Amino acid sequence: MAAIGSLRERVAFEARAIADDGYGNVQGEFTEVYRCWAEIKPKLGSETVLAARLSGVQPMLITVRACRALNDIGADWRIRDLRKDVIFDIKAISNPDMKRQFLEIFAVSGVAT
C-alpha cells in the first residue's frame, strides 16, 4: 500500500461521454472527470505480465487516494498520465486496506481504446 508521500505523478481520470450520433452509436469521446496525485508502478512478476510485455502492453499498478469523485470509476474509464501523456486502460480496481483510503488500479498502456 502506498504512503501519501509516494503519490508523485499527476493523473486524470476520464470517462466516455454518452452521445448519440444519429447512426446508432451512443459512445462519445473521453472527457476528464477528476485530477489527482498517484503512484504509478510497473506490475512485475507473473508469466501473464511477461507475456503482455512481449506483445507491447505494459501492465501498471496505479495507486490513488479514494474520494467521492472516484465512486463511479469502472473498467470503462481510463487514466491519463498528465506528465507523460500516456493513456492507461483500467482493468481492475481494488481497495487494499478495506477502509477506502486508497484505491489500487490495475491498468495497461499500449492498448488501442
Q: What is the secondary structure topology, with strand pairs?
A:
Elements: E1 9-18, E2 27-42, H1 47-54, E3 58-65, E4 78-81, E5 86-94, E6 102-109
Antiparallel strand pairs: 1-2, 1-4, 2-3, 3-6, 4-5, 5-6
In short:
The chain is mainly β. It is 7% helix and 49% strand.
What's the CATH class label?
Mainly Beta
Which word captures the global form?
globular
Query: Which fold does the CATH topology refer to?
Result: Thrombin, subunit H
Query: Beta fraction of the residues?
Result: over 45%
Named CATH architecture: Beta Barrel
In what order do the strands lie side by side in the largest sheet?
Answer: 1-2-3-6-5-4
Number of strands: 6
What's the end-to-end separation, in Å?
29 Å
Structural class of the helix and strand makeup?
A: mainly beta
Count of discrete alpha- or pi-helical segments spanning 4 or more residues: 1
Stretches where pLDDT falls below 50 for ≥5 residues? none
Give the number of domains.
1
Largest sheet: 6 strands, antiparallel, barrel
The whole-angstrom Rg is 15 Å
Helix content: under 10%
Secondary-structure element order, N to C = EEHEEEE
CATH superfamily membership: Bacteriophage SPP1 head-tail adaptor protein
* Integer average pLDDT: 84
Structure description:
The chain is mainly beta and 113 residues long. Helix content is 7%, strand content 49%. It has a single domain, classed as Bacteriophage SPP1 head-tail adaptor protein (Thrombin, subunit H, Beta Barrel). Strands 1-2-3-6-5-4 form a 6-stranded antiparallel β-barrel. The model has no long low-confidence stretch (mean pLDDT 84).
